[in-house]
Structures are given as C-alpha cells and as structure tokens.
Amino acid sequence: MKSIYILLLHLLLAGSLWAQQVQVGAGASVVLYPGSSFSSNGLVLTPSTTTTLSGFTIDNSTTVNHPFGPTYVTRVYQFNPTGPAFSGDIRFNYTDGELNGLTESALQVIVYNGTSWQAAGTSVNDGTLNYVDATGISNLLLGEVILANSLALPLRWGPISATRQQNTVTVRWITEQEQQVSHFDVERSTDGLHWATAIAGIAAGNQSHRREYVQSDKTDHTGALYYRIRQTDIDGRYTFSKVAMVGAWRGMDPLTVQPNPASGYFSVTGIAADEVVQTDLYTPGGALIKTWKGYQQRYTLPALAAGVYYARIHLANGQMVSRQLAVQ
C-alpha cells in the first residue's frame, strides 16, 4: 500500500497541507503520528495516537449534510467516508464573515459521528486569532465538523401529568422548545417497566416557545397505570419524558404511598401513625430490601435502580397491605 507519512519534523520544514479538498485515493493512506499535525483549509488535526486515514476526502462546504437545528458557522468540513476513530485535538479556524451572527466566546467544535451530533472534547476559544481548539478528544468518528454556540437537543421537556376519570386517562405534557421534532407517541404501562404505545403519531409543533399537548386514552385496565411520552426527531433519534402515574379507579384503598414515582424517599398516607407497625420494601421478585420499624413521616430509600418495587405495610390489627412503588 502506498503511504504518506507525515511527521512533526516534516511539517516544521514543509508546512501544513492546505486545500479546498483533500483527497487520498483508494490504495493510499495518510499516517498521522502523535504530536504531528494535518491541516485542510483551516481544520487542523493533531492526534494523540497513531491515526491512519485511507481512501478518503475532506470537502469544505457552507451547509451540513445531516440536519442540525441551531445556527452554525458557515464553514463545514465533511469527511467521506466517516472515520476512522480520532483521538487528540482539533483546531477549527474561521473568519469573521463566517460567524453567522454567533457569539465567538461561546463557540464549540461539534462533530457528526456517523449517527448523531456531539460536542468534541473541551473547547478553548481565541476570538482575536479566530480559532477554536477542541482538546482531549477520545475515539471520535469524524463525519462532519462544525462550529456552533451549543449542541441544542431537538426538544426540551416540561412537566407531564395524568388524571383519570373512570376508564379515561387524560395525559398532558409541555415542551419548552421544539426543533426538528417529527412526532410524539404516548406510551402506557401497567408496571412501570414494560411499555406499549397507547396513542401514536401526534404531530409536533416545532416552536421555540412553550407548548402544551393534551391526549385522552381510553382503557379497560382498572389498576394503576403509568404514562410517558416518546418524542422522535427527524433523524430517527428519540427521547422520553418523565413518567406520570394514575391510581386505580375502582375499589381504591385510602392507604397510599407517595410520591409515586418516588426519588429518594416515600411516605405512607391515609392511615393513622399508630396503626403502622412495620414497613418492608421488596423487589418485584420478592427479595427483601429494607425494613422500617414503626411509622415514619419520610421513608428514606437506599440506592436503587429505577424500576418498580413493593412496599408492604404491617398494621396494628395484624393485616398487611402491599402497595406498588415506582422509583425514578
């Protein structure tokens, strides 16, 4: 295989490579050694490990090939094909005319890694010399490299709630911001672990301000139910909201554990303190996790993985009452 070996000494003598397009044909490669540098029209790669680039091109463009919501500098470096994994530092040079209205002090290097956009290393900015350094990069695939003020997610979640009127559950959720969101799905669960789609394909608003969504789910399940929202963006990536829970609507006992889902602690309500003798916490498989003697205003939870557990309350009259407890 024909190879081009770029050493630090060679670069000091001959200078960096600058071109509108860098192309290494099939059967050829560029080998970068730790401490050496390779430049393509203002993009400088300084690897911390030996890196071989084979059969690739680096093109310059003013727009990205893969959708990116926030505003970015109008200089884009595109690697074809993506990769290989790069470790080291990247310097991204730009001109004032390419800033596109962005704040220089907040610029950071952002890379498309073949599947999604991610911030590259730790950014160090020089607004006088017009460059941004991304340092400490580890095993990052290089697809496209850009500068932007932030790596904004397509969606910022607000609160979610669920209320029940007999066999109809009304689910409300709020988004603080939407960018390039394709749609929402309402998912339902009877145990907080296994989920199914209850309402599919709810159109997104894609607005920069707060928006509320309301959906009604009719169900014959009379026990407690859990709801969450799945958002899918136009790239196919998705995120989930927090979980909202509604209790059973027939034969409800006044004794409850709350908040439910819980985070850090729970309380037992709907019963006098002197009626509680002991409270046990169990895994779904029936293994005892912790026991509390007597009544406590707050039952502090040990470190637990998110999931569904069971609280068993021993009463003074000899009865035992079990309640499902979701832990976030």
From TrEMBL:
Keywords: Signal
Top-level division of the source organism's lineage: Bacteria
Signal among keywords: yes
Signal peptide residues on this chain, from the entry's feature table: 1-19
Entry-linked InterPro entries: Ig-like_fold (IPR013783)
Annotated protein name in UniProt: T9SS C-terminal target domain-containing protein
Organism for this UniProt entry: Paraflavitalea soli
